[in-house]
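Revision sheet: structure tokens.
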Amino acid sequence: MRRLALALSQLTCLLSPHFEPARKLPVPRFVPSLVVLASLWISSAPAHAQAAYAYITNEGSPKVAVIDTATNKIVATVRTGYSSGMAVNPGGTRAYLTSSDDTVVVLDTASNDPAVIATVAVGANPNGLAVNTTSTRVYVANLSDDNVSVIDTASNAVIATVAVGTNPTGVAVTPDGTRVYVTNQGSDSVSVIDTASNTLSTTVAVGDRPNGIAVNPAGTRAYAANSALPSTVSVIDTASNAVVATVAVGSRPNGVAINPDGTRAYVANEISNTVSVINTATNTVIATVAVGDSPKGISLNPSGTRAYVANYSDRNVSVIDTATNSVIATVLVGGYPNAFGAFVGGAGAPGGPTAPGAPVVIDGVPGHSQATLRFSAPASSGGAAITGYTATCNPGALSASGPNSPLTFPGLSNGTTYTCSVTATNAVGTSTGSTSVDVTPTETPPGRPPSAYISNELDHTVSVVDLASSRVIATIGVGTNPGGVAVNTVANRAYVASSGSDDVTVIDTASNSIVATVAVNDSPKALAINSAGTRVYVASSRVTDLDGKVSVIDTVSNTVIAIIPVLLGPEGIAVNPTGSRVYVSSSSAAQGNRVSVIDAASNSVVDDFVVAGSPKGLALNPFGSRLYVALSTQIAVVDTATNAVLTNVPMPPFSLPYGVVVNPAGTRVYATSLTSGTISVIDTESNSVISTVPSVGFPRGIAVDPAGTRFYAADEYDHTLSVFDASTNSPIETVEVGEAPFAFGAFIGGAGIDYDVIFRDNYGGGPPTPPGAPVIGIATPGNGQASIAFSAPADNGGLVITGYTATCNPGAISNSGAASPRIVTGLGNGVPYTCSITADNARGTGPASASVSVTPNGGPPPKAFITNQTTNNVSVLDTGSNTVTATITVGANPFGIDVNPAGTRAYVANFSSNTVSLLDTVNNNVVATTAVGTGPIGVAYNPAGTRVYVGNGTSNNVSVIDTSTVGVIATIPVGTNPRGIAVNPAGTRVYVASLLSNNVSVIDTASNTVLTTVGVGVRPEGVAVNPAGTRVYVGNFTSNSVSVIDTASNAVVDTVAVGTAPRGVAFNPAGTRVYVANANSNNVSVIDTATNTVIATVAAGTSPRGVSVNPAGTRVFVANTNSNNVTVIDTATNSVVTTVTVGGNPAAFGAFIGGSPPTD
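Predicted:
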């Protein structure tokens, strides 16, 4: 009988979803009489109060092996029945395992003798299971019943059953216990369960045959292992429930486990016999560890120092040291171990996330009436992301809070010694206080800089100039050919980049001595430091390099922690005030004279933009809203919200601008001009030069003192530092320094900037403030959402408003953005909400506006109508559920389609029938057929719904249909082979792209005549007009570009490079994004219309053609001609949320979604 049971268990293994199941495949059961729920077989009586244990289920033998993780020895074996899934509760007092007789076996693991205390009947063929962090619920995936059983752990009874996808397998619970994530192997998805109602809240499409799943300790990401080829892990953002990354791992990934601080994910790969180690910050595999044969389950010990891997075919467990990513022990356990789930527990196991450890104080830095506390993160995050830090100083119990180091206390008494410490907080709670540090604020007046650090390129020194006495007080030998300089006023450090010796010298500004030299990439030119003083960014590039580089230096350890590739020839670099963005100018004409934008959190380039000339120095205003770029003959002014060049300020003739700096108030920009030997003073309000200050020689670096009363220029030819009065823009004196002073960067140190004092004493009036309250408008209800209109506040607080936030209650549900209206989603239909708006500027958030009431309605989502060329029909797709709900037979080879503005009618161009079909989109049937020209392709409604324009590709004309009579009332000759067609919002112009004429015909709708023809790229196809009617975007199939036409001048004003063979083009309702379907590169380019740059590329199906955006602007639908499906893209994350199968060779060339703007 035992042999029979073993044979059955091996057969079950081959058919089980952990191996490679057939979809909805019934799984053979074990003989019930063979499953004996008895007591302990072998016991070494583990002392469970002392250690954590690994509980290993075995599919080939009816027992659980208990491993002491301190010794990696088996200390007990519990007879349970043949089992696979395992989950230990956070307290380590109970273990739950799924048994082959459709039950969950409950083990008491709190005592010295683990024993079976209950069995709970669940669904058919239970597999994975998970316990919530409060140990009150167990969630069990029933493979053959397609549901999840919810067990109440107090009564050990099933209290709910939740239907999920096909063949559910893996289960994971969020740390807060509000959601359960379930992998469905048969439907290639992850079900998300709301635990409050035990109902399915959403479904996330992932890879093929997902198996194991785990949620990180912060509850922000879920990792699902897709066991079929190409063997990946889908990374799900739990806020949006969208896949935000896909990570390639080993062959047939099964179990997944996350370490306690959420920085690593471990994936057991069954076929390649390895464990992939994923860095969760970058979503890349950083190590691959060879383990035993057919690894399945994987779990980590409470400290995250060991990973335990159940090797099914080798019948053992590999123990991995996570510090070295190497196997340090192998434990033989029994018959075909699976241990699918979080199988490590015991008294040593964490009871879910805990409060973090104490931060480590580095030092306290005194300032004028203030103190700055520097610290590093605690050794333990408590298993949840740290959400902030709070520093406290006594006497006075003064506090300051923020997301990271350092924290600054303003308003302290000079000369008083304060004792300060810091705590860390995560979702669970707050840590104990750090060790204390004493700091005494100084009497130094705000804005009185003690020194300037001037790099001298030819004598390889730094001259330290005391600005109070205007004399050199120290000369420091540094690397070869020093140039860039940045002074860290927080930590009393100066950093000097030496291009000849490829290093950065670190100077202690208190003692003017060298404390470190950091080797960096080839030929460092410029450097900048973030406002927190924690990171230095160094731009470097040799002439022979293929690209530039930015080295990131950690200022605590003085080591390079990241190297970021940028464009060739970096010259200038700047960091915004919040430290979130780094800007790097690249002067390579071959790469287009661009500025790269780096995200400081991920150390990656997230954008770049073109400027008009060879860019050199960069400077940001104090609020981070404007970037000033020194170009060949002008200064570019860039809006950092959109990375668009707002204007170019001309410099004096033959000036060659180089260094640039902004005063602390943000009212003046100072720029050195190399060849004219002058300094230009720019007024930032008018963006014009208001003064040209004569200098001498060859001025390079320039800086302003913290008070804004003086500016200083390093004169390379005269070997001096020139001092100027900022109130009169006149020279005061010069200071002799070293040979060929360069000083490119923020070379002045001193006390921190007090903006309030600067505005009051130097610029009149009070300091900037947060903005006033916006003026509330109307609230328009939608399906689960509300659109809140408003106008700007009367008072912007003296600064540019950077954004608005709409908040609706109950629930404090919000949406933020740059302009009106704000669309708040995620609301309940039929629920009354009260909504208001706040405005932000660099000083903070202003008061809320008056409230407006709105009740979202539950109107049906719009339909998408997909023309299928080879099946001669139209698939009707419900955009809410992303399912095909009907199919409408039309003419031969339907191609173009457009839905009227009301969403009640649609016209379909039947290419081979030479007709258009009129669809009733409410009843999903054809109500009329109209003969048009030969080979109709593109179709477009006018906004009033009274006219339809049909581009006839073979007869080279446009048919005009009167929608009241459904008859052709005019025929307009256009170019050769007209394709895409679009009408402007006013209904006065029609734009027709002619494929073989390489142009766009502009039709006057009043006279039905061609007004003009605009030359574009080669073989234009798709065309779309923006909602404002000011721009037309045309996809050029052969040129791999999009032409941008200004509708006022009917001229091409820009050309955007996109993917290969662009076809369909569509705007979002706001007009801020254009989506372009690229037929040969099988993707969609996302264009930011403010900058006309591609900001994202999203993979689609094979040969995408038609593209359309839903009326809410939240989803893009793409018809893939050769893969017979539609890709659905989430516009918030630019990621694919699902793919829907439709008819044969879908084209859907036009605005195929009801209520969407006119597109083709």
